[in-house]
Amino acid sequence: MSRAGHTYPAPEAAIADSRWDLDEPAVTEDEKQVATADTACKWSSGLVAAWYAADTELQRAVIRDNPERFTALRVNLKQRLERASRLLAEHEGRKVR
Fold it and tell me: Sign of torsion, CA 86 92 93 94?
């Protein structure tokens, strides 16, 4: 960010800049330029890849440490998908008649 003329002390600082009103639908040109520089900096520095790798490892650890929970979630999802498929098939069958 310093190459683009910004002095944010940390990667999360740009979005927390008090100049931005994140509830406002209109985005200023200055905000667009800072957001573009912020994105380019995060990608070119390898920060996005590092965050992705760290997050992936954390998620894999949660899955590895909770096999019963994720098995139950998988079973539940399969049941809901089967029920939804049945209901859709029944609904389509009614439309044809």
Answer: positive
- CA 43 vs. chain centroid, Å, equals 16
Percentage of the chain exceeding pLDDT 90: 90
Q: Which of the four pLDDT bands, split at 50, 70 and 90, describes residue 97? A: low
Domain boundaries defined on the chain: 1-46
Residues 6 or more apart in contact with residue 47 via CB below 8 angstroms: 11, 41
Tell me the C-alpha to C-alpha distance, in Å, between residue 68 and each of 40, 62, 75: 41, 11, 10
Per-residue confidence (pLDDT) for residue 96, from 0 to 100: 58
